[in-house]
Amino acid sequence: MRSLGDSVAVLKGVGQKRLTALNKLGINTINDLLTYFPRRYDDLSLKDLTTAVDGQKVTVKGQVITAPTLSFFGRKKSRLSFRIIINDNIYNVTFFNQPWLKKQLELEKPIIIFGTFDRNHNQIQGMKILNGDKSDTYDSIYPSNKEVKQATIKQLIQLAFTQYENLLIDIIPDWLRKKYRLESFHDTIQNIHFPTSPMAAQKAFRTAKFMEFFLFAMKLQLLKATQRQIEPAAQIAYDTNRIKAFKQQLSFKLTAAQQKVVTEILADLRRPIEMNRLLQGDVGSGKTVVAAIAILATISAGKQAAIMAPTEILAEQHANSFAKMFADQPVNIALLTGATSALARRAMLPSIKNGEVNLIVGTHALFQDQVDYDDLGLAVIDEQHRFGVNQRQALHQKGTSTNMLAMTATPIPRTLAITMYGDMDVSVIDELPQGRKPIKTTWIPSAKTNSALAFVKKQLEAGSQVYVVTPLIEESEAVDMKNALAIFERFKAIFEPAFSVGLLHGQMSDQQKDAAMADFKNNAFQVLVATTVIEVGVDVANANTMVIFDADHFGLAQLHQLRGRVGRGSKQSYCILIADPKNTIGKKRMKAIAGSTDGFFLSQKDLELRGQGDITGYKQSGMPDFKVADPVGDLNILTVANQEAQEIAQNSDWQKKPENVQLAKYLKYHQTITTD
């Protein structure tokens, strides 16, 4: 029985050497080959050079009127030159590094050439010589390597399509294809590889993108369903009265958004199903108190809770915050990080194992082999984008049916929320605490730095404090950027002795960092010159102004995070971006951050302008590996495909319906989600 899963070795002309070369391109099976899509198309229809644009790729038919001359440069470089005549006009033609083409040229004989037209020199830089029957088609151009040539890939795809086209069965249900005017799988493959027009290829690619997104979304729904199995151990029978009393003794009232999120989390904890929830909220939106309520609920049910932070400073800050919040509660806190001494660690581990300690705060140290828990009911992951899937999983496995709450202050664009976190329920705190005013943001070129300094002086004289952020610690010859040490000296010269200037950067020891943060908070410094270390940490209500030098060297999400350090008090706050972006994208990014305080809008914009590789200044891990679909450029298709997958999966017996037979069959054998 033939199948699309057959090895490409079954095709004529594929021996062991060629098979190895194809494998390097990711082509192992017939299905891999048929879904190895072109990266572009060359339009081989004949062009009229009198109307062609300079630099345009053209196909022309003419007559060779001069004998070709072949010149060699070095070992492998060559130039083949001759002239052709087209409608009484003479054009020079040059082919580089294709000396074998000389054999195909004959005086007075017609020739069809595909190449780039240089109008100024009346010249064509040739790319290939075509056969007569190729002059009215579109040529598919595939990613290739030295071992597998374009012609070989095309030949093998043609062979595979001829032999296996009857096995190209539709996986997407008919009603869904009709709803979105999608092509059959057979026609999609045919029109992508052998299109008769640009429109045919475009339509086929649209179907391929929908199909890729839809099947990915269906896999996520299956993953979600397996996580939703009844697990009695996951149920947290918390004490409602203790939660009510805790909320009442807080010095502030929860916002409507916080209350909504708390309700969602508590409802999850009550169910005998593991919680797998992502909590998103801008800097300062109050995620910590929401986490505190979830932690207290877990502890009130006699279970343990753990919170994992990416850095020791943040872990310490959480331990201090929770110690204050739970001062009147029977909560025993342990702080476990890489900096914990061996002595303290030895004393702590038995207390964690026997349940005496019921809140464990720490870093990666929380899931090390030697750390055993009594009954871990809840694991909270803070700034979760800094942890890989395996690290989150390692903490999860420290308990039996542990509930997971992942938190992030980085607003995640819809693209990533759907593709990276589609298996999670998402809660959003989209409201800042009462009394917070939007931060006024301005972008100025470095030539206007003096006006920013005058503004800073005015704010200092009014009794406010100021952050000054720069990308580098020390001056670098390689990079023309402001640096913290130079700016620190400059600000001291300008503002001292009237105002004190402090310094904070990543190369200082933890003790020095903590001291600098504490001094700024206590107003011992009125100006704090810092690198991005302040992205996480300091909460100073009196600091209402931030100046960011070389702002174009930061991601939008990171600038938004930094900006969130001001605007924490009742005063109007300001952020001044000083930048001289060198290209259009840089300018667009500066305009976007100056024009919006919406973190979700900015993160989507960052994704569009910079690509998905680096959203937050940290490499995104776990991004799905799509062949043709682009989660950023094809966001509308992604959203629709995701919605349809959710609709189908809501029906518990969807797999038994006749229209879903092929889809269910496919998913049974392809449940793995591929990520890069």
Automatic annotation (TrEMBL):
Source organism per entry reads Lentilactobacillus fungorum
Gene3D superfamilies, A to Z: Nucleic acid-binding proteins, P-loop containing nucleotide triphosphate hydrolases
Q: Which family does it belong to?
A: Belongs to the helicase family. RecG subfamily.
Query: What keywords are assigned to this protein?
Result: ATP-binding, DNA damage, DNA recombination, DNA repair, DNA-binding, Helicase, Hydrolase, Isomerase, Nucleotide-binding
Q: For the Helicase ATP-binding domain, which residue ranges apply? A: 268-429
Q: Which InterPro entries match?
A: ATP-dep_DNA_helicase_RecG (IPR004609), DEAD/DEAH_box_helicase_dom (IPR011545), Helicase_ATP-bd (IPR014001), Helicase_C-like (IPR001650), NA-bd_OB-fold (IPR012340), P-loop_NTPase (IPR027417), RecG/Mfd (IPR047112), RecG_dom3_C (IPR045562)
Molecular function (GO) terms for this protein are: helicase activity
Task: Name the domain of life this protein comes from.
Answer: Bacteria
> What's this protein's function?
Plays a critical role in recombination and DNA repair. Helps process Holliday junction intermediates to mature products by catalyzing branch migration. Has replication fork regression activity, unwinds stalled or blocked replication forks to make a HJ that can be resolved. Has a DNA unwinding activity characteristic of a DNA helicase with 3'-5' polarity.
Q: Give the EC number.
A: 5.6.2.4
Q: Which reaction does it catalyse?
A: ATP + H2O = ADP + phosphate + H(+); Couples ATP hydrolysis with the unwinding of duplex DNA by translocating in the 3'-5' direction
Please give the PROSITE patterns that the UniProt record associates with this protein.
Answer: HELICASE_ATP_BIND_1, HELICASE_CTER
The Helicase C-terminal domain, residue ranges: 448-608
Q: Tell me the protein's name.
A: ATP-dependent DNA helicase RecG
